[in-house]
Each structure stands twice: as structure tokens, then as C-alpha cells.
Amino acid sequence: MSASPPTDDEVLAVIVAAARKAGAIVVASSGRIAVEATKATVQDLVTRADKDCQDLIEGAVRAAFPGAAFLGEESVGAGSAASAAALERALEPASDLLFIVDPIDGTANFVHGVPFSCVSIGVARRNELAVACIYEPYRDELFTAVRGRGALLNGAPISASKEPSFARAMLAYGLGSSPRVAHVMLRAIGAVQEGSRGQRSLGSAALQLAYVAAGRFDAFFEVDLSSWDVAAGALLVAEAGGRMTDTRGAPFTLRTRDTLASNGAEGVHGGLLRCIADAKADCAPAAQTA
């Protein structure tokens, strides 16, 4: 790379190549690899492939952009407090380039051979999302976005759905990997069950955000997500014409943990916000610390 600041296209080329190589590891190992450890709960899994994929991506980033900051899930301790603290360290001082990486989002799916997981890489410039890549290797679907230039799926433009009605909306959600999150989310699902067309929880926040960007889902929400779960997907949704907020309606930032993404229609976004508020399900209780 030249001595001048890398362009968005240069950044995108590096992360796409790395994501494809990591995706090859995912496909080769899916359903055939042991769990090495768990983090905060027995549902929060770590495998050798998670570490190998992150090492591969970090190596590619550091080779291309030696001065860049890097925040990868597998380098951070367990729990919400650890992930929030790691993000704060990465955001201060603001870096010219910050790579936020989930090497395998949907690890439980991956471990059990369920073909719904992805490699997620979001890139911020001075703490503002600028470039994103989510690669779903089972179907060879590459979702990319560059700030101000729209969102693409395998090189073709995509856009959020045009559905205006909450009653006809297909919603996606996540249950998290802890009982405190699951209890809140199940309360919320009870509130939206009768008012919307359907609800799906597929086990990868990043990929479900990409599906909102592609118009496959009309909205997605989950409380207590980490930055690596949402950084790439948030840019995809925004560039596809959707709307990103927290679950109380405040604008999305990299620090947002309670995430709501939609096609941007007030009927859908506002309707979901109202259901969440009525269920008192806009955030999870703080994790207990010893």
C-alpha cells in the first residue's frame, strides 16, 4: 500500500479477501470441530476455527495496514463488561482505521453443522463506520458496503424492504447466550407475536442484519450485543436505506448494545419500538459480577 491513507476500496479489497479465506475454514470445519472452551455461559462457544479465522484476518489487516487498530472477539474476555471495555479502549483515541471483527458469528450453528454463520468485518475511520463486509460462505453470499455508496450482495445493489406495515412485517431477533438476555427477548417476542406476520431467530446477529439490508427481513432486534456483532451489519442496513437505532429509539453508535434495525418505515420501526417498550424489554439487566 502507498504511504498515503488507504482508500475505502483498498480497505474493502483486503477485508473481502480475508473474509473469503476465513469462510473457507468455516465450510471445511462446520459440524466437524470440537468446542475448545465456553465464555460467560455454556452457550457462548469458542472453537479452534474461531481463533484461526481471527488470526488469518488480523494477519491480513496488519500486513496491509500496519498502523491500524484491531478489535476481534477472540481477543476479549467473557461478558458484556469485558466487551464494552475493549470497545472503549479501541475507540479512544480515535484511530484512522479500526477493524472490528467477529471471525465466526453464529458459532453454535457452526459447531452443530447448521449452515447459518458468517464472517463479519466492520471498519471505522475516526470512529465512524466506513466499510463493511459480511461473508456467508455456505451460499457464497458476500454482503459489502462503503459509506455513501450503497450496499451490495455479490456485487449487485441491495435495498431494505418497502413494507410499510408492522402487521405484515417479518421480524428477526436473537436470544443471546445468557439467561438474562433470553428472558428479556422472550418477553419482547410475546409482545410482537400477534401484531406482526412472523418472527425468526436464526442464531447470527450479523447475518440477520445483512438480511434486513437485503430486504429478506423487515426488522431485527436484540439486546446486549457487542460491537463485533453489529458493526458491519449496521453499515449495511444504513447503506441499504434502512434505519438503525437502539431499542429505545436513540441513534445507533458503535457503543450501542441494544440494537434495532429496520427497513426504515415508521410503521415497522415505530411499531416494534412500541411493542418493546410495552413489554419493558428494551434492555437486559446488568450482568452479575463476583
Give the overall shape.
globular
Q: Please indicate the percent range of residues in DSSP E strands (runs of 2 or more).
A: 15-25%
Structural class call reads alpha+beta
Distance between the termini: 47 Å
Rg estimate, integer Å? 18 Å
CATH superfamily of the largest domain, by name, is Fructose-1,6-Bisphosphatase, subunit A, domain 1
Largest sheet: 7 strands, mixed
- The number of domains: 2
Give the SSE order as H and E letters: HEEHEHEHEEEEEEHEHEHEEH
Low-confidence residue ranges: none
Number of helices: 8
What is the β-strand count?
A: 14
What is the level-2 CATH architecture name of the largest domain? Answer: 2-Layer Sandwich
CATH topology value of the largest domain? Fructose-1,6-Bisphosphatase, Chain A, domain 1
CATH class of the largest domain: Alpha Beta
Mean pLDDT: 92
Helical residue percent? 25-40%
Name the strands of the widest sheet in spatial order.
Answer: 3-4-5-6-7-8-9
Describe it.
The protein folds into two domains: 150 residues, Fructose-1,6-Bisphosphatase, Chain A, domain 1, CATH 3.30.540; 113 residues, D-Maltodextrin-Binding Protein, domain 2 (3-Layer(aba) Sandwich). The protein has eight helices and 14 strands. It has a seven-stranded mixed sheet with strand order 3-4-5-6-7-8-9, with helices on both faces. A five-stranded mixed sheet has the order 11-10-12-14-13, sandwiched between helices. It is globular. The N and C termini lie far apart (47 Å). The mean pLDDT is 92.
